[in-house]
Amino acid sequence: MDALGYAPGDKPTAFTFKGIPMGVVICFEGFRYPETTRELARNGARIVFHPQFNHVMPGMKWKLPIHEALIMTRAGENTIWFISANMCHERNNCRSMIVAPNGLIEKASELGREMLIVADVDPARATHAFLKDNLDDMAKALGES
């Protein structure tokens, strides 16, 4: 389904807004290819947006816990904010979520309900600690120090 709404590029989609480095990974590339998000984080992105179009087809209910776990993983493994927005549909299988750099959900929508989710996002919390193997920064990112 992604091919209907998106065209391929030849490099990660990165940009800066109000001095904050950000990036975009689209649907499947954000779920199944961790290197796309990692490349943006390595290049300084503190916030990565993840537009997606996911819905349940017969026999695909397995996707819900896996997709939500992958979204949380992308934030935590890169110590960045990961903001994933799914379409609203009675058969959608993944909530829209704002996930903090520690991998925990800050805000999430409800399945099948049209909602706007809002959270205060502090870009300074996106330390890229796990990419740098910095134990002190890792502990801080996880709230352990």
CATH classification, class level of the domain at 21-120: Alpha Beta
Could you spell the SSE succession in H and E letters?
A: HEEHHEHEEEHH
> Can you tell me the overall shape?
globular
Strand content: 15-25%
Gyration radius from CA atoms, angstroms? 15 Å
How much helicity do the residues have? 25-40%
How many beta-strand segments?
A: 6
Total count of helical runs of at least 4 residues:
6
Strand order of the largest sheet: 1-2-3-4-5-6
Examine the secondary-structure arrangement and name the CATH architecture of the domain at 21-120. 4-Layer Sandwich
SS class = alpha/beta
Indicate the mean pLDDT.
87
Oligomer: single chain
Structure write-up:
The protein has a domain at 21-120: Nitrilase/N-carbamoyl-D-aminoacid amidohydrolase (4-Layer Sandwich), CATH 3.60.110.10. The chain has helices at residues 2-5, 28-32, 34-42, 63-78, 129-132, 135-141, and strands at 13-17, 20-24, 47-51, 81-85, 97-99, 105-108. The protein is α/β, with parallel strands linked by helices and 145 residues long. It is built from six helices and six strands; from the N terminus they run H-E-E-H-H-E-H-E-E-E-H-H. 31% of the residues lie in helices and 19% in strands.
